[in-house]
Every structure is written in C-alpha cells, then in structure tokens.
Amino acid sequence: MSRQYAPYGLWESPITADAIAEDSVSMSDIFVDPVTKDIYYIEQRASEGGRYVLLSNQTQNEVFAKDFNARTRVHEYGGAAAIAYNGTVYSSNFADFLVYAAKDGKIKPITPEDPKKIYRYADLSVHPVHTDLLVAVLEDHTHDTPQTVRNSLCVINSAATTVTPLVCTENAQREFYAAPTFSPSGDKITWQFWEHPDMPWEGGQLYVADVHYNPNTHTLSLSNTKLVAGSASTISACYPLWASNDKLLFTSDEGKEGDRFANLWEYTQARTKPVLSSVVQQDFCMPPWTLGNYPFAFLDDNGTKAICVAWRGGRSVLYVVDITTGSYKEIKDESFDFVVVEHVRRVSEYTFVFTGLQSNAPGAAMLCTLTGPSFVPDFQVLRSTASTSAAPFPEGIISLPIPLELKLAGDNIVYAVYYAPNNPAYAGSNIPNEKPPCVLGVHGGPTGLETQNLNWLKQYFTSRGYAWLDINYGGSSCYGRTYVERLKGNWGITDVSDCIEAVQSPELRSLIDTKRTAIRGGSSGGYTVLASISLASSAASKPKFFASATSNFGISNLELLADDTHKFELMYMIKLLGGTKEEIPHVYHDRSPVYFSARIETPLLVLQGNDDEVVPPAQSWTIIDGVIKNKGHVEAYFFDGEQHGWRTSETIKKAIEFEREWYEKSMVRASVSK
Fold this sequence. Notes:
A hairpin with a 6-residue loop joins strand 6 and strand 7 (99-103). With 674 residues, this protein is of the alpha+beta class. 53% of the residues are buried. Helix content is 16%, strand content 36%. The protein has an eight-stranded mixed beta sheet, sandwiched between helices. This is Alpha/Beta hydrolase protein.
C-alpha cells in the first residue's frame, strides 16, 4: 500500500475520540484473599459513568450489585476501597459511603446508616483472629470544610454494624493516617501517620503498637505505641508490611544528602536498618497519592524474599530482594515489557499479582510465578483492559516512547519522553522541510511522574502528525528526593523554566517546530500551563512562547487555593512556595496567573469539572474572566457531574475533540494556510 503525504497535524487517523471514550477502561486495583487465595480486581469504566466495578477473577462476575461503585473519597483521591478475607469481600460504596460485606451471594452494610454521607472509610484491615473486627482509615466530614475535616483510625464491628475509635487525637484536623496493618498473629498493628504541612512522601512516619482484645466488650485497644521510622518533614517512611510477627518492612528515603532514594528498610528487635547492602539509586516506590498502592510483596512464607518495584529512567523495574543478604536480582521477560507496575500482592509461594502497563499494549491485571534459583518469571494475563467491541487499530500505528535526558542551563538535568508522529498510512508532510507541531504535556502533582505506558490520547495526536513531549520537570518523583526538592520554594518557576528550556534544547529543536508547540496539563500541570503563559518570570521575557495552551482544571489563584482546596493538599503549597500566604503574601500573589491575565497572548482552552473539590471551578472562571476583559483569545467548557479528572465517556470524548480542534485552529491550519 502506498503511503500518503499531508501536513503534520492534519493526518487522518482511525484512533477517534469515540473509540477512546467508549471503551475507556482502567485497572485501578487488584487484591488477594490471604486465606482462600482468590483474586479480585477493580475496573474503572467510562462507559458506565466512571463506575468502579469490583470483579472476581474466579467467576469474572461482579461481587456486588450492578450499581455498586467500589470507590472511596478518603483524602479525596481514594484508593484501597476493598479487601477480601476468608471468602468475604469488603468494600466502600461511593453511592452512600457505607462499607459493605459480600459472601456467598449475600450482601450487607457493616457500617451504620449515614444519610448525610459524613463518614468515609478506606484501607481496611481484618484482624486475623477476631475476623469480624476491621481497622480502617476514617475521614469525618461532620464539619465539612478543609480546615475541620478529621482523620483517624477506627474499628468496624461487622457483626454489630458499629464503628468505634482506635487512634484519634485532639489534632485530628491536622492529621492523616494510612496503611493500618495487623501482624500475622494480630498482637501488633502498624500504620503510617503524617500531619500538616507534610505530605506522606515528605514526612510519613510509621508507628507500631501492641493490640489488646477485650472479650467482654468485643473491642480492640492499643498500648506501647512507638514511632519506628520516618521523621516529620525530613524522612518519609511508607508502605509498612509485616514479614513476621517481629519484623516489619517498609520503604524509606533516609540517607545522606544528595543520595536519598526510597529503598527497602526493616524494623526488627527495636531498631531500623536498610535491607539492601548499599543504597540503590532508584526509588522503590511512588509517592502515595492514593491509598493501598503497595510496591512490594513477600514471596515466601518466612518473609525472607520479596518482589519489589523500583523506578529506573522513568520506568518500573522488578527485583527479587533477598532480605537476609541484602542482594537483589532483576526479573525480565521478553514477552512482557512493563513500564508501570503497581498494586503488588502476594498470592502464594513465589506467586504474586499486580496491575501492569506497557508502552505498546493495553493495561492488564497480571499473575506471575517465579521458578528455580534464577527466578524465571511466568506471566499470565488475568484480565486485559483492551477493547472487546471496537475494531483493532492498524498494526504499526503506536508511537513508542523515547526517553530523553536533557542538559539545561546551570548543568541541570531534566527528564523528558518524546513520541514522534507516527501513522502507517503516512510517509510524512507534503510541505517541504516542515517539522511537526508538538503537544507538550505537563503532569499533575506536582510531585508526580508522567509514565511511559500506552496512552491513547497521546496516540490520538501522534497518529495525526503531531509530536508529543512529556516533561518530568524538577520536582517530579521517582528520580530521588533531591530531584523532588528542586521544586521546593520554586513552584511556578522551576517547572515553567524546565518546560521552556526543554523545548529550546538542541535535541528538541531538531525534532519539532518550536514555534508551533502547545502546552497542556491538568490540575497542578494546568497551573504550570497558566504560569508559563502569564507570569513575569516566563511570559514577559518570552512573550507568547507557546503557540497554544490547554488548562484542564488548572490552578490560577494560589491565595484562593490555600483556603478552599481539600484537606489532603491544604498545606501542600507551604513548602512548594516557601511559606504560608500570611508569611509570604507577595509570593502567593506574584505566582498566581489570575493577576497577570493581561499578559496572556497565547490562545487558551480551559476545561473544568463543575463538581471538582480539589481545584474548584472558581479557579477556571477567574482566569477566563481576566483573559476576556483583556480581549485575549480563550474558549472554555465546563462539565456537569465531573470532579477532578474525566470519568464519563461523554466528557472524555468532548474533551479530546475540543483540544484537537483548538490546536488546529490556533496553530496548525493557520500555519498551513500561510
């Protein structure tokens, strides 16, 4: 078949917004019943309004009713909505915020009626002896403002349908809890704790306590509570997991300055120590934005070996770690090249499950068994997120990621991922010497990572003749704590300059049309978008550097955000900006794009969910009003029923098409017509 030529950005593609939206399915969790060894997973389905569907691997059927939504809004981002124990599946339900139990086809609520939806539950842990008692993270919205929401640990009595406090203090408005986990005997419990202004990856602390059971009241209490790892603001300890009744494993970024990576540590015999014989300059976990996303699991009954996920070059790597010797071995398989591995859970001896993403194939729930002294892996797909209804896309249409390490001013290194225009029906442009327009993606967080897994939105654009560039700017995760802290006090400066300088680097100038580069991002990535086209530190010195921009639920007013974002991130900005808004009001003002909307010359598209509590709609309305008052070029679309990110097929489709049409109008067709 002869290949066509057409201007970059105007190629026809079989990857349509309809095809992406209608079959949009993501694997949000996988977990295992430790007694029966049955496997369960949770899918998010856009075609069902973004419902989280809890499925049994054994039956391939839903565990709960067809309208059940296995999702929680603890910390707003949720996670760890469900677990299974001895044939009973427990899950929070997004519809009414109650926790339900399902066994042998019988379903019942195990938390009290809550018609006002005041209480949210997540991260459940069943006591291994008194199995009708579960510990959970409880978020109390009785006084529903970001400043007054209270977090604690509670005990759910599934037989009596009661909830009682376990760990709760007078400072609950400032506190957070995660990962409550019983020891195998049930005599001890561990949990993660942090408080404002820390985030869990900045100063997460691990506690261990003795557990006491009262047979008269059928309740649990704690004593001898000890801080065993982590330190406020300086050392983060995360993901505690018992190897035995007297040994606890976790990740920690404790180390020497400049050589701080989250490696595997252990607590035993009243002291902590690193598991690995020397620091591995790779992070063995991602920042815990959601609950329950464990990066390791034990492989044997004695807890002497673990399967661990580390991050190298922005991609997941699987290691078998020998906890007794401190050695580790990488696990590879030519058939599967996973760039993102999450939700690692043990099934049985040397068998584990996880959710896996690849660069050239849809995501899946996976089972792996390791055999022999070399730990040869046997991977099995349990459930794929591939479409079962749409026609397959042409072979060769996927643009594969090309990781780049860019050296910028001041010898700073910035990590990027490049996707070239790619469509088997096209050989290139019919315009002599034309370079492709580029979409520059800015991830959210900002303590996050843009991964290299298959993303159909990116392929939607590359198959139309666009280049796509992801920037993991200074402050991004999975490159060590020193890289994360490049953004400390510099949010709105380092992220913006890294994006602009990356586009100007020799490597990128040879690949893309830098004068036809659009910048787009969501949430804090949307803030970087707005900052890059408005703030004095960027736009004034380089007016209209970007040809077009898209802000998805982006932040425009830092002063407002400091008061009305949700509790989890309420004080996140203090370190990102260098102080509170009372301490440094000029910084909050000078880095708020809303006050500099008169500088915005770049055509701006704004997309926003009307029910967003993380970045409320006022953040978008105010920047839109400012651009309109100054006769700038802006279009905006607000979506009813959508929160922080798109979950329904209809919104996903509209958002994709609005963005493509915007780039065509603002930078592609205008250039071609010249």
